[in-house]
Amino acid sequence: MTExxxxxxxxxxxxxxxxxxxxxxxxxxxxxRDTHVTAISTVKQxxxxxxxxxxxxxxxxxxxxxxxxxxxxxKQLKSGLELSNLPAEFELKIENKISPITNSALEGLYLxxxxxxxxxxxxxxxxxxYFLDRPDVLATYTTKVIADKVAFPHLLxxxxxxxxxxxxxxxxxxxxxxxxxxxxxxxxLVAGDFDVLRDQYTTRSGRKVALEIFVDKGNxxxxxxxxxxLINSMKWDEERFGLEYDLDIYMIVAxxxxxxxxxxxxxxNVFNSKxxxxxxxxxxxxxxxxxxxxxxxxxxxxxTGNRVTCRDWFQxxxxxxxxxxxxxxxxxxxxxxxxxxxxxxRIIRGPQxxxxxxxxxxxxxxEKVIEMNNFYTLTVYEKxxxxxxxMHTLLGEGKFQAGMKLYFDRHDGTAATxxxxxxxxxxxxxxxxxxxxxxxxxxxxxxxxxKANYDENTKTYALTLxxxxxxxxxxxxKQALHIPFDxxxxxxxxxxxxxxxxxxxxGNVLSFTxxxxxxxxxxxxxxPTPSMLREFSAPVKLEFDYSDEQLAFLMIHARNxxxxxxxxxxxxxxxxxxxxxxxxxxxxxxxPELVIDAFRGVILNDQLDPAFIAEVLSLPSxxxxxxxxxxxxxxxxxxxxxxxxxxIATELKDELSATYHSLGQQxxxxxxxxxxxxxxxNLCLQYLATMEEYASLVSNQFDVANxxxxxxxxxVAANSSSLPIRQNLMDRYSDDWSHDGLVMDKWFxxxxxxxxxxxxxxxxxxxxxxxxxxxxxNRVRSLIGSFLNMNPRRFHDKSGxxxxxxxxxxxxxxxxxxxxASRLIDPLLKFKKxxxxxxxxxxxxxxxxxxxxxxxxxxxxxxxxxxxx
Length: 869
Ligand code: TRP
Ligand code: ZN
Hints:
This protein is an alpha+beta fold. The protein is 41% helix and 22% strand. A hairpin with a 2-residue loop joins strand 28 (500-501) and strand 29. Helix 8 (548-557) packs antiparallel against helix 9 (561-584) and helix 17 (708-720) runs parallel beside helix 19 (741-753). The longest helix is centred in the middle third of the chain and has 34 residues, at 378-411. The mean pLDDT is 98. The site of tryptophan (TRP) has 14 residues, from strand 20 and helix 2. Residues 297, 301, 320, 323 line the site of zinc ion.
């Protein structure tokens, strides 16, 4: 452990900065080992302090000048620079040196495959120069970039290019000016040799915007989908939110070394190449949809994040929850709303609920943070989006948009808080959100239990709802939340009933605000079937004692696709649970005829979207099932998921096979209808592959595939069903693609999730593959991340070999890239979910990490929380 334990920051301690910086002039003289940075800032005192504490890490200070004079009244601290006895207003000039080539943490200024690039969010700018590295200090930036002409023909930064020229025969420079005041986390610089895809967009009000996507040489043929997605994003934001772009140029750079998905730097987004590069030979349909979503997400940040930014990092969900909501709506408006909703809900019910129940549990607006990078979480992003969605449900689109407009009227050009956002929604709608605000401060997942009572005499149907949130590690006391609870009632013919309460018609969204509350519906002639938490109207667990018949009925009669899917999931959940019991009692895995018939009915229904059918037939993941238990029986759950899949496959063999063959391979195109057909065809293949007789179907699909979606589907089938042809397919793929890390990531992910008993040995061997590198986060996530998260049987092997392997990797990444290490460690934090023997083995690894004398703050925060639990 480090000498002095890292210090936590608390939301309640917020204070405005001692000084503001209104304007910055930066010069970068780029050299691998010693880049010279000059920062000239216009500084003004904001409180009565004449001392200014600037943040800085790993910086070699060269000189400090105040108003043109050498300044010696300063102290260099471990993580900053303290300047004293300052005038009220002054020009501060700092010169310092940094070493991009030795920066493996990928934060600040670093080299990605020979190109310079920056990542400043959340607190990376302090690795570039001494600065007030906090989001409530907004300045305009002028940036001069100087580098070698031949190696770095493109020199980029935020805003507009205002000057370029030569320094000498070898070096050139470009000057950029960004007119929009911004916090330093939105600063970006890129220098490299790229191919550029160019296009143009004219905004609604007539502004011509140059669009430029920079990719590694030779990758131009993989940038088209990103460009189309960008143009679609710009158009959608004008149409749905009335928001236009505000500069004359929008640049996107794709880099191979990146800790996250992408970054919304003003006018100069930096992207993980995974979310830019795609063609049919290299990318799957899922990749294409991911690119659309992330391009949209970063573009939408221009208003929700950049024009209005966060006052402090505790407010992160202000921009992230809202921007995820916006990108989800974008994808839903362009593609299938139901399929998008289903996939978003799977993320909440799986990994987000798991996070809520873990030692890292925190509200969407955290109260206490040691390392900010640890709070770019499913809770802040995905649950944050659900919280915005609930406001949208409560207000309706019209009032919600009025709230957005008021929010921008009030806060454009400033750093705001979550409270500011809720106030705008409240003031624009007239709807009281007092209790609703608890969603921002309360962590954990509420469970809503429902009891129904039909009274034949009074013709009333009563739903009694109770809500309860279990204590979480960060917060013992829980309060009742304002839960929008969307309900529909169906009569026995499947007609939807108009809801009536207290003599009048009511809408479908009940405001459930008490610990326990009963809603009585009148004029209900016969006992109805309720469809509840429709559209997943709140991020809660629903408990209701549905009969199999009711669920099968809803799968047919529910008016909306999401509700049909959800009924199917509840039916599966019942039998996954009962079969886990059975397996633990050494009994066979079985599924009743009714369940099989319900799913048969879905496959055979040609009125349904094939993509939707594929979702209905997809079993819950191991991780989602694990969330249903306090202590999960790893092997039993794995056996049941495998067994249930096999029963459905054998029982529905004819239908699956007929469907597979009816959806023959088409010429490849990326549109919803084509994607949907491939999704269903490949879903059928996954089931069929569980039966030996269909192994040739899998290898045949691999042989003739004309696109990566179908190639990967064949490999996934061979991998998860451990078919004899698996090795052959894997070898052929690696022969074709070993030169391309991004394409190999799919192969690495299959190695990681390989259920066979030598998986760990294979994973270790893969680490010597020419395409693998522990310094590339994408490779690490594909191979190691999938082993830890997608291979429950082998990762949780009773010997502890999986845990020891994870420990080794974490100790190595702790030094080179703590951000990546900190994401990788999450499954180990949840040790309480496993039996005592496994717990003990995991704790050994956590203790080893804790004992390291250079443990990074990122891991320190998580390891200590987990061990304190
Ligand atoms: N703001 C980015 C997004 O939501 C997130 C991000 C990108 C990030 N890179 C990062 C966060 C590095 C922390 C560290 O798109
Ligand atoms: Zn974001």
